[in-house]
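WARN retry 2 of 3 for item q-0093 after timeout on previous attempt; input resubmitted unchanged.
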Amino acid sequence: MEERQSLSLDEKIQKLINNYTDLKNKFANLKLEKAELENQLSELKEFKNANGDRLVELENDHKKQTEEIEFLRSENKKLREQLESYNNKMKEASARLDSIFDQMNDL
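OK item q-0093 returned
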C-alpha cells in the first residue's frame, strides 16, 4: 500500500512537472507570437504614417491643380472676352470702311 501511495505521489509529481513544462512551452510560444504581432503592428503604423504623408501630398497637389485650373479658366474667359471685343471692333471698322467706300462711290 505504501508503494502504491508512493507511486501515486510520483505520478502526481511527474504530472505536475509535465503540466509545468507544457505551460512553460505555451508561454514561450505566446511570447514569440506577441513579438511577431508587435512587429506587425509597428510595420502597420509605419505604413499608415507613410500613407498619411502621401495622402497629405496628394491633397496638396490636388488643391494646387484645382487652383491652376481655376486660374486657367479665368484666363481663358478673359482671352475669349478680349477676342470677342477685337471681333466687334473689326466689324465696326469694316462697317466704317464700307461706309466710306460707299460715300466715295456716291461722289
